[in-house]
Amino acid sequence: MDAVSGPVHLVDSSLYIFRAWHGTPIDVNDADGWPLNAVHGFARFLCDLVERTRAGRLALAFDEALDSCFRNEIYPPYKAHRDPAPEELKRQFAHCKALGAALGLSVLADARYEADDLIGTAAAQVRREGHAVVIISADKDMAQLLDTGDVQWDFARNERWDCEGVKPRYGIHAHQVADYLGLTGDATDNIPGVPGIGPKTAATLLAIYGSMDALLSKLDEVPLLKLRGAAQHAIRLREHREAALLSRHLATIACDAPLPADFNAAQRRAHDAEALDRLCEQLRFGPMTRRRLQDCARIGL
Questions:
Q1: Domains along the sequence of the chain with CATH
Q2: Nearest partner of 11 among 136, 115, 97, 95, judged by Cα
Q3: How far is CA 262 from each of CA 148, 149, 245, 250, 258, rounded to the nearest angstrom?
Q4: pLDDT 10s per residue in the chain (301 long)?
Q5: pTM assigned to the model
């Protein structure tokens, strides 16, 4: 199978930028004194990814909906506990997007939708066009997007799993991930869930009932289960029913986000040599990184 007819690689770019921001020493600044560690680390990641996959279809999804996501309209506390990104990091996000575009990669970003939603939308679209999907992310939430033939890839650990691999990995099926998060909540994103329903209990209830909807329709049965604290769980679920439904809604990845008109199933385009040279100069990449980027711009075409 050639690169262009092969799977579409969809990258949770923000995750890898944050890792580079925290894990790459600040030993290079731009001409104005701003740090460049995150974009340097992200550039190395991109080169590694392209060299290993030789992907002909590759898209980079970025988070721009920091406080303007549609989920904030539904539930204002969503991610509200997080500190705003410092200006030093925001500037580097812009550099990373520019670098992806100069390399001829599809760049996905939107003010109302998160990177997860852009990946979910892209995955749904390219599947309809006959492509399998490789989601490059370590985020557990992404598992809900996996369908037959798809793969999620934790690039840093080089671990891959498909739709069938979600259950042994997380204790729930791929289609149950949003229901699971609706029950447990997610402190990272400030999603409330149901107080007192932890991961093991949520997984057990979903194994018995299959879905949150089925569980909530049969709460009278829950106290009869051979499950420690079953009666209390039934009370909590009844009292916090609306919170569970809201939490599931917040945790469900949208698949109707806007994509660029020229998305074209993330097919690689010819790189912009002038823009790439300008960025290499502006971002003070060394000669080895410059050569790698120039080589990677041609791989997969």
A1: 8-166+254-296 (3.40.50.1010), 174-251 (1.10.150.20)
A2: 136
A3: 26, 25, 36, 29, 12
A4: 455 668 999 999 999 999 999 998 888 898 889 999 999 999 999 999 999 999 999 999 999 866 779 999 999 999 888 888 888 899 999 999 999 999 999 999 999 999 999 999 999 999 999 999 999 999 999 999 999 999 999 999 999 999 999 999 999 999 999 999 999 999 999 999 999 999 999 999 999 999 999 999 999 999 999 999 999 999 999 999 999 999 999 999 999 999 999 999 999 999 999 999 999 999 999 999 999 999 999 987 7
A5: 0.94
